[in-house]
Amino acid sequence: MIIKFIDFIFWGNNKLEKQLQDKTVKITLQNKKISIKNIETQTMNQKKLNIAVLPGDGIGPEIVEQGLNVTKAVCKKFGHELSYQFAIVGACAIDEVGEPYPKATHDLCMQSDAVLFGAIGHPKYDNDPSAKVRPEQGLLKMRKDLGLYANIRPVTTFPSLLHKSPLRADLVEGADFMCIRELTGGMYFGRPQGRSEDGNTAYDTCVYTREEVERILHLAYKYAGQRNKKVTIVDKANVLATSRLWRQIGQEIAPQYPDIETEFMFVDNAAMRIIQWPKSFDVLVTENLFGDILTDEASVITGSMGMLPSASVGIHTSVFEPIHGSYPQAAGKNIANPLATILSAALMFEYAFGMMEEGALIRKAVTASIEAGIVTEDIADNATAYKTTEVGEWIVNYISK
Ligand code: IPM
Ligand code: MN
What we know:
Blueprint: E1 3-5, E2 9-10, E3 15-19, E4 25-29, E5 32-36, E6 41-43, E7 48-56, H1 60-78, E8 81-86, H2 91-97, H3 103-111, E9 114-119, H4 123-126, H5 135-145, E10 150-156, H6 169-172, E11 176-182, E12 194-195, E13 202-203, H7 210-226, E14 230-235, H8 241-253, E15 261-266, H9 267-276, E16 283-286, H10 288-300, E17 309-313, E18 319-322, H11 339-353, H12 356-371, H13 388-400
Parallel strand pairs: 7-8, 7-9, 9-18, 11-16, 14-15, 14-16
Antiparallel strand pairs: 1-2, 1-6, 3-4, 4-5, 10-11, 10-17, 12-13, 17-18
Residues 121, 136, 139, 292 line the site of 3-isopropylmalic acid.
């Protein structure tokens, strides 16, 4: 890697460890770790990309294979050097080592510049609520340990798929919004959680701190500033104490962004508005559980859940994954839609490496594949459905042209 500082250049064995928000950079210089404050850096166009690949369970390995092939093709095209390493997560990790997010997997993620993730989950756990170790715990642990406090799910529509949407084409056409879901707080992580001794009462706890709310709201304003300058803060402030904290902090922060419109909306109303008037949203930001529910709803607007990518970002390495699950019924059949994972690879280029051209090329290739009808059965119009591998290969060829 070549690192260009304002007045001098490092190359060869010198490694840029981390570029922090306060402009401190940590570098390894002739094998000595040092950090420099207040410096502007700029990495040169051709880079070394070091990614962790976590296929997970169900259709995960099949779709991630296509996402990785597309990543390789883009690197080849643009002259980037790609190195990648696989690691286990989810039900397959429980089978192999007894836990869903093993330390070796976490260590690999921490050392990588980005993580490409498939899906986790297995029916044997879904049908056994008493199982003590569950694949989902691995996902939650990964989010917590990597500090991935924001899950970004862009909802965009593809003109040639409008007829697949459950909504009328005129309602969906041109819908383009970004859901930002808080990912490491709320009911998913609040304690206590459990059952009374007699087993007849159960409880979860929803907790949010000021710091957690502030950082995600600032992120939402940052993205809105780059988009259509509107933030919708979704809560249930008429009932929940945590939501009232969200709303209070939202009211404090909004005046700091005078050129951005702020809208507060109750979650039940937001669920309705997403199907009634999806075009009214630009950036929608909300807490963990509301975000989980609303993004599944938002995803089908595009015609298939198999189309939506996501980026989880925060303190350590970012994770890029499709929003759909492990779809065990389709596993091993070569029929799963790889597009959400391929589009997640596009987000990886953009968010993790700042490579906008690379991301745009992937998106162009995906649009072209849909227009050419090279799609899997979930979005195919008639009998001509293509296999997962065929869709992936078509996109790789398009990129390599
Ligand atoms: C998601 C999934 C997960 C979640 C599950 C698998 C734990 O639904 O990423 O949206 O609820 O966060
Ligand atoms: Mn979900």
